[in-house]
């Protein structure tokens, strides 16, 4: 949708059909039910339903408001779904649930995930486990054979570094498998995509097609497009994809929440909700169908279209919050789109890409701030991070920070001189611990031994008092919060490599890791008064696990922690095995 569109934002008085047309949503055969009228309609999705509940005989852990770890053996849940007390006396009429000595923890809040992409991947080609181009080609062939009616084949998850390819994949690599219909496959980080020749033809991409600002068309020695597109150039092909219907969008949300509840996630900050996504989230929250709280970051387009009408700190008993806007300043390290102050160590002619010019970034940050929204900006490279820090500093001089806890998403490679600015500007570092262990196979190759000192620098940020809100960036990386905690504490992958940890001096303690996925993730979402810990008065969002992350059994690693039960708002929403 066009940022310069003169269409006014939708009004609550519009009919459903008018609203959908204004939002540019492909309706197809699906029909959007009437939008709910208020939060009270969703209140029945919380609570015990039959009076108070005591979950007892557990090894419970929660942080206190001051960040200290507290242990408990039972949790009393009030009929409204909130915590009534820990180790509290249970009176008559209380339903008892025996935790059988299992561990009970606050529900995990993924501080940065892509809900819609994660949900879509369930029906698309998933290449995230492939170890070679040949394996990916076999997966593509099998998927194409299983889906003969699809007009486009879409998917994501390829990683040329893992494949050991030494180059990006090409249209020719896909053509040998599928040539009769368009194929579009995005890289694991979502910042590059590869198309087959049929897709290039549909998109009208030729050697005469110019690179768009903030994007790159990868070309061969003769200047012909190879089929791979970086960052803003991806839109040349992705804009041709069939638009999802409202039912598609709804199913993506439902699929995602079911999968995320199963790994212990009870709330998520979604890093990019468009107007159609907002409609679906509001519908599901109002109907009491959401089993995972969503702190939705509006995309820039959605903010300019509907931002004035949809801002809310809490809808449907804290199931939906819309008070943040997401921007992008650069790309990703793996596809060399992250904007660097100096050239890439392994590509001396390349300093990465800016997806938005500094002046436009300044303008957008100021506009978002003036509308009372929190700003969250994706920044990977040291130049990208510096530009975002500069933009915040300029905006704060003009209008103040308004106490909205503005964020930098990823904060992945930061110049050492810029790290103190996070504290000076009181910014949230929204980071993904699994990125360190996912990227250690190429990160130092990209930036060299000096710049790596400011990369994935959790300890430096924590020691200066900067709040780190941890997430996964799903589906870019594993959605398992305990895999993120494992990476945060050990700086190793699942196999325990490298021995002793990768730049282990930047590791978190186990309590810091838990805090970053619970209390501090909630704080970054302005929700620390309602979730993030299991203190009385907060929602009873918790998980029961098969292992104690603070006292690991011999031979077990934190990432192996399994979820047995998931509760949201005092209601069990997932049962995944015997206690």
From TrEMBL:
Residues 98-573 form the Amidohydrolase domain. Gene3D superfamilies: 3.10.310.70, Metal-dependent hydrolases (3.20.20.140), Urease, subunit C, domain 1 (2.30.40.10). It comes from the Bacteria. GO terms for molecular function: hydrolase activity, acting on carbon-nitrogen (but not peptide) bonds. PROSITE patterns: TAT. This is Amidohydrolase 3 domain-containing protein. It comes from Micromonospora avicenniae. The lineage of its organism: Bacteria, Bacillati, Actinomycetota, Actinomycetes, Micromonosporales.
